[in-house]
Amino acid sequence: MTYYLTEDRLNELKAELEDLKKRGRLDIAERLKKAKELGDLSENSEYAEAKDEQQRVERRIDELEDILKDAEIIKKGEKTSGVIGIGSTVEVVRNGKTMKFFIGGRSEVKPEEGFISNESPLGQSLLGHAVGDSVTVETPTGSAEYVITRVE
Predict the structure, then answer these.
(1) Which of 42, 75, 88, 139 has a 20 to 30 A CA-CA distance from 81?
(2) Could you tell me the residue range of the domain that residue 27 belongs to?
């Protein structure tokens, strides 16, 4: 599976991975050590919580390693052929309201900041279209029509 990431997001994920491998693992090891010193592990909630956190951290490390292994860098602001693709910034009009979206991968999603996934219903609908095209997206409240006014 390919994970589409901007350079900024790639660096954020690398930093998170590094932090989890170093500080995260050390913090948990310290918590486990202190919990073991309390005695009986069968009824030791501090130990159980530390083990749960250890599992969460290790799952996240595995997830980040998978993402970074299969990452494809999105070049923001690259010249486009006018056709919307992953990495495009798109301006659309819906019900007279202008909106701007950057289409990235699933790790880029921040709808409140205009970052949508290529896998989202809107992202999927926009891919392959150009200025002047109209796309219809099915939403939980019905259909929504977007007119593409700009592609960067």
Answers:
(1) 139
(2) 3-73
Cα gap 102→7, rounded to integer Å: 14
Note whether 67 and 9 are same-domain residues: yes
pLDDT at 80: 63
pLDDT, one tens digit per residue, over 47-66 is 889 999 999 999 999 999 99
Q: Note the maximum CA span of the chain.
A: 70
Question: How many domains does one find in the chain?
Answer: 2
Same domain? For 48 and 81 the reply is: no
Q: How far is CA 102 from CA 34, 55, 71, 94, in A?
A: 46, 34, 18, 16
Q: Burial of 116 by CB count in 10 Å (0-12 exposed, 13-18 middle, 19+ buried)?
A: buried
Q: How confident is the model at residue 78 (pLDDT cuts 50, 70, 90)?
A: low
